[in-house]
């Protein structure tokens, strides 16, 4: 009998080897491997495309990205310095003397003498102080939000040819005018007693947002980005699903695909760290490194959030696929989980809990209920506009909790239930 069993096992193994050696199986395995590599390569690109399309295509998203920069001390100092330079250029002592009465100029110039430098420093300090007060005020918060909303509309207009009449292309560039900030500084100087500031002419200090000399290439790239942003992530999911379908061991392929996507987006996160270091290392002279660092961090904030979200989701899918497999440790984990749920159910029943028809219903429709819970979790994640890592974690935990509830309510076949072959069944 033992020899017959051994012969049967050898025959089964030979049959499996022969099956695996067939050309179409080799082709399917090769195709699955190619699709997995493509999913791995395209996953980080899909995250970048979705993030960029969201930033460029959604004004509220763009404002939410750059809005917090108004509270950055480094950015406030940089803007205040830009505004104070524009003001102090019209407040030097020579300008003050020119604004004095002609008969008073010689006497004032003689009286200033060696006090010129300290006075100029004092004026510069006062201007810087008032400029900082302006950029830290609630007025500047409103100005910053409105200005960036106009900037976004301008960029979208320049890149797509659509939008309102607020678009301004000046000297081959899209600019933001800090003139209102300068006016606020002038008014505060006048209120502080430096009435000569009222004679400063209207000053326009522009900040270039977009170089319009290459607007044709940028417009083409933006249109491509809009397409990729909407469909590249779907393409990655389709490639991963096709790889799993082609693979002979589909559960293992699913684990591999999920881990490949997770590793791909984590490499993107590492690339952001390297890009930040290179960006700060090559700043032009005169640019505040702290302000540049805050701007970079804020601009890629949602990109880093997307990286964490996809990484958490990929790890959860890989772990779920592995735990549902036939492996020894996965089986031990499921047995331990089931034993814990059974013990909890028995304790509740000892305390008087009676599930009745609910338990029988859940037992009969358990498979459908399980798939419904999984589908609801996937649909929630798909419909969430911009899921964060915590949102993905919360959805995963909610799905696990719902599956545990289904398992708890499943009392199994009870005495007196109709057998599958009975007419009542």
TrEMBL record:
<feature type="transmembrane region" description="Helical">
    <location>
        <begin position="390"/>
        <end position="409"/>
    </location>
</feature>
<keyword id="KW-1133">Transmembrane helix</keyword>
<keyword id="KW-0812">Transmembrane</keyword>
<feature type="transmembrane region" description="Helical">
    <location>
        <begin position="228"/>
        <end position="247"/>
    </location>
</feature>
<keyword id="KW-0472">Membrane</keyword>
<protein>
    <recommendedName>
        <fullName>Integral membrane protein</fullName>
    </recommendedName>
</protein>
<feature type="transmembrane region" description="Helical">
    <location>
        <begin position="30"/>
        <end position="51"/>
    </location>
</feature>
<feature type="transmembrane region" description="Helical">
    <location>
        <begin position="368"/>
        <end position="384"/>
    </location>
</feature>
<feature type="transmembrane region" description="Helical">
    <location>
        <begin position="254"/>
        <end position="279"/>
    </location>
</feature>
<feature type="transmembrane region" description="Helical">
    <location>
        <begin position="306"/>
        <end position="325"/>
    </location>
</feature>
């Amino acid at each position: 009998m033992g020899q017959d069993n051994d012969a049967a096992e050898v025959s089964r193994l030979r049959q499996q080897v022969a099956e695996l050696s067939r050309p179409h199986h080799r082709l399917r395995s090769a195709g699955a491997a190619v699709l997995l590599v493509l999913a791995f390569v395209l996953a980080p690109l899909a995250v970048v495309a979705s993030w960029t399309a969201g930033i460029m295509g959604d004004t509220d998203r763009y404002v939410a990205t750059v809005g917090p920069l108004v509270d950055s001390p480094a950015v406030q100092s940089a803007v205040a310095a830009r505004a104070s330079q524009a003001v102090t250029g019209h407040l030097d002592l020579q300008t003050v003397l020119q604004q004095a009465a002609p008969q008073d100029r010689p006497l004032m110039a003689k009286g200033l003498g060696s006090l010129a430098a300290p006075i100029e420093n004092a004026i510069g300090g006062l201007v810087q102080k008032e400029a900082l007060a302006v950029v830290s005020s609630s007025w500047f918060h409103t100005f910053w939000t409105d200005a960036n909303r106009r900037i976004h509309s301008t960029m979208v207009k320049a890149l797509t040819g659509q939008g309102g009449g607020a678009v301004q292309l000046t000297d081959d560039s899209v600019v933001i005018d800090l003139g209102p900030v300068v006016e606020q500084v002038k008014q505060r100087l006048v209120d502080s007693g430096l009435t000569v500031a009222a004679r400063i002419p209207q000053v326009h200090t522009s900040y270039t947002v977009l170089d319009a000399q290459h607007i044709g290439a940028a417009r083409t790239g933006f249109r491509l980005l809009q397409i990729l942003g909407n469909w590249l992530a779907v393409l990655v999911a389709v490639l991963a699903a096709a790889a799993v379908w082609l693979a002979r061991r589909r559960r293992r392929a699913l684990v591999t695909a999920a881990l490949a996507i997770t590793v791909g987006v984590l490499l993107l996160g590492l690339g952001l760290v390297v890009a930040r270091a290179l960006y700060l290392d090559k700043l032009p002279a005169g640019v505040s490194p702290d302000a540049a660092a805050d701007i970079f961090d804020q601009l890629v904030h949602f990109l880093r959030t997307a990286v964490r979200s996809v990484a958490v989701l990929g790890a959860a899918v890989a772990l779920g696929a592995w735990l549902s497999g036939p492996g020894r440790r996965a089986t031990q984990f499921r047995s331990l989980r089931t034993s814990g749920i059974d013990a909890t159910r028995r304790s509740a029943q000892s305390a008087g809990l009676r599930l009745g028809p609910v338990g029988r219903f859940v037992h009969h429709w358990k498979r459908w209920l399980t798939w419904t819970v999984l589908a609801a979790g996937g649909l929630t994640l798909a419909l969430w506009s911009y899921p964060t890592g915590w949102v993905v974690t919360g959805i995963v935990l909610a799905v696990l909790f719902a599956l545990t509830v289904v398992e708890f309510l499943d009392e199994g076949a009870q005495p007196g239930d109709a057998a599958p072959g009975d007419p009542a069944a």
